[in-house]
Amino acid sequence: MDMRTRIASLLCGAMHTQWPEADSLPGDADVRGMLEVPPDEKMGDYAFPCFRLAKALRMGPPVIAQKLAAAWGAEETARVECVGGYLNFFLNRASFARETLQAVSAAGGRYGGGDEGKGKTVCLDYSSINIAKRFHIGHLSTTMIGHSLRRIYDFLGYTTVGINHLGDWGTQFGKMICAYKKWGSRDEVEEGGVSALEALYVRFHKEAENDPSLEDEGRAWFKRIEEGDQEALELFNWFKELTLKDAARVYDLLGVSFDSYAGESFYIDKMEPVIQELRDKGLLVQSEGAWVVDLSEDNMPPCLVIKKDGTTIYATRDITAAIYRQNTYHFDKCLYVVAYQQDLHFRQVFRVLEKMGYPWAKDCVHVSFGMISFEGQALSTRKGNTVHLDDLLQEAVEKARSIIEEKSPNLPNKDEVARQIGIGAVVYADLSNNRIKDIDFSWSRALNFDGETGPYVQYTHARCCSLLRKAAETQLPEADYSALTDDEAQALLLLISRFPDTVREAAAKYEPSMITRAVTDIAQAYNKYYYEHRILEGELAAQAAKVALTAAVRDVIRTGLWLIGIEAPERM
Ligand code: ARG
User: Ligand 1: residues within 6 Å at CB?
Assistant: First the structure.
């Protein structure tokens, strides 16, 4: 049990003993939620505001605080103080250390996890790449935020469904086929892969400027795909295969996987009944030859469902996909990890679902995020100013490799560790800020072993592992936790004890960066501790306590890194 839970349950017990007659006293979980962390440590480690009890007890908050303080005798706290309507708890440092470290070790590598999600399903729509386009750095955030959220929800016991909602439908594929038929060759595309497809697409647009009839040809090819024409479909599926093969390399490097690749084309034969349903419910109105759902009441432009030429659009497929996911997975939540540019699109889609009478529409959440730039440069596919993710990752691994060569030339399995560090550096850079903020990726920042970076946190983990290997050479007695009452150890313990709450907050706010922050703070606090204290010196029982602290730091860092999709090498 963590210290907050322990204090809450003791406090709850104290209330019920003090006022056995009172009804509507809060329960353990409520009290736990009401406990605050004071802004200044002079005010204690936890504070309980008595204001919300005043009504039930018909007493002033300061009186309540005094009565509870007078009856308080738990050894977990060194003392309690009343300040106004607050009850401030000062933890007994040695027992705080014991409770915290025992909780970490009892969790067996799952400290901070739980089963509150049992029986609940979360669908996550992330990465969702586009066919015939290379995987570029712009798709890194959706991939890693989604992957991390999935691990966080898994860790809390939810059933998760990872969905790669492929962008595999639209007139651009007709244009692709048209360009391929005119200027492409099988060998060239087989060899060049997605880059060759991209080049064909660019050429199509250049030539179409002078020859507008190409656009008609492109549309005709798309129509053939829609009608299931064999040649068109074969080419289209081949393009898809090439794209997924390319993407698989990136996913492998990142350790990312999906349960479903049902993309836009998957919904082609499922839209008709949904459109009929919209009609039956009186939601479709005609506007300039198109069919739309009016959202003026909600101060939004209408949601386009069927275009003037009778074809469906992105939104039609998303409405259909949401219904399909609810019917198939019965989700309690469906998260869409997509850049903020699509904010309006999702607000429209969710509102349409609500208007259709689906109560679960409120469980659809757009988890949006900011833009990524590279070494201070904005990226734009159109201007040809892109950074391909596999190049970036490859380069990260090579750079990590040369740093290892310099710092620890004798390290065993250098290639494996270089991969872990290189990828870790990129992922950390992506998940280190509040997701809605724009980020700039810079090599010098990402790979700095001393800054707030992936390699820094990984290095701290490896340092713990190395110390624990050394400690294992000596038989240590039972730990004496009074060896951990100094400020540095206590600061570290406090951070560790808050980790389980951080995991839950990260899940509730869809914010992996909170975990990145937590592991970074723990790594920094441990390094501070490490420089001020000799861990493998002094009394053996004291050593045992310091070793237990080190083991807890290793466990929590490893778990935290895993939750954000970063590996934790044991040697660096
Ligand atoms: N393929 C789209 C893009 O790259 C993202 C799709 C997001 N998911 C969705 N259900 N709309 O912009």
Answer: 125, 128, 130, 165, 167, 318, 336, 338
The atom number, within ligand 1, closest to the CA of 346 reads 11
Helix axes 213-226, 186-210, angle to 10 degrees: 130
Q: Which fold has domain 3-91?
A: Gyrase A; domain 2 (3.30.1360)
Note if 461 is an active site residue.
no
290-293 vs 284-287, strand pairing mode:
antiparallel
Q: Is 136 a catalytic residue?
A: yes
Looking at ligand 1, which atom is closest to the CA of residue 167? 1
Residue nearest to atom 5 of ligand 1 (CA): 128
**Residue 132: left (phi > 0), alpha (psi -120 to 50), or beta?**
left
pLDDT by position in tens, the chain (length 572):
678 888 999 999 999 999 998 878 999 999 999 999 899 888 998 999 999 999 889 999 999 999 999 989 888 888 999 999 999 999 899 999 999 999 999 999 999 999 999 999 999 999 999 999 989 898 999 999 999 999 999 999 999 999 999 999 988 999 999 999 999 999 999 999 999 999 999 999 999 999 999 999 999 999 999 889 999 999 999 999 999 999 999 999 999 999 999 999 999 999 999 999 999 999 999 999 999 999 999 999 999 999 998 889 999 999 999 999 999 999 999 999 999 999 999 999 999 999 999 999 999 999 999 999 999 888 776 666 788 999 999 999 999 999 999 999 999 999 999 999 999 999 999 999 999 999 999 999 999 988 899 999 999 999 999 999 999 999 999 999 999 999 999 999 999 999 999 999 999 999 999 999 999 999 999 999 999 999 999 999 999 999 999 999 999 999 999 999 999 999 99
Q: Which of 16, 55, 118, 133 is catalytic?
A: 133
Residue 357: which region, alpha, beta or left (left: phi > 0; alpha: psi -120 to 50)?
left
Catalytic residue list contains 139: yes
Catalytic residue among 16, 55, 139, 281: 139
d(CA 367, CA 506): 12
Find tokens 């009504």 and name the residue. 55
Q: Please report the atom of ligand 1 found closest to the CA of residue 166.
A: 1
Instruction: Give me the sheet containing 77-83, strands edge to edge.
Output: 46-49, 86-91, 77-83
What is the whole-number distance in angstroms between the Cα of residue 118 and the centre of ligand 1?
29
* pTM for the whole structure: 0.93
- Output the CA 238–ligand 1 centroid distance in Å: 21
CA of 142 relative to ligand 1 center, distance in Å: 10
Domains in the chain: boundaries: 3-91, 171-254
